[in-house]
């Protein structure tokens, strides 16, 4: 049996920035307007076969509420990829994404950063105006060595592409680790209980 490689991916961002909807669309191919806010963190796994190897994505969807911010370090510890979600119609959510980029650069310098603008459908359907310009994010990505995507979980637009790029970049980097099915994250059992997103 071919050995399986595990890649720990963490999602970070402001509350209501679309993290859970992004993961749910990727894992279950579904979308709900009434997705509840994550409490603590939720864990999902996605098995892929890529570049001739078995890869398991261990995905941690963290809570965006400020009261859970101190817990997030538990979940991004040892992560090799981070999806920093921001709502394209909420300027403050991009500021929060930059905050998380700074945290990751300091604590996990080997973690690759992917900026993910969400809710593109709201802009294209003229429901809400765009507050974060693509050029602004591209310039920031060049500064930090990150990648950028704009997505719609409602439509499924670019959702798979985010995770596919993460998997491809990881395999190309030759930094594969076999650290266990959940990326060996250290979780304090006294912390807020986690829910499962899938």
From TrEMBL:
GTP-binding keyword on record: no
Domain of life: Eukaryota
GO MF: GTP binding; GTPase activity
Parts of the chain that traverse the membrane: none
SUPFAM superfamilies: P-loop containing nucleoside triphosphate hydrolases
Protein family according to the UniProt entry: Belongs to the small GTPase superfamily. Rab family.
Protein name in the entry: Ras-related protein Rab-24
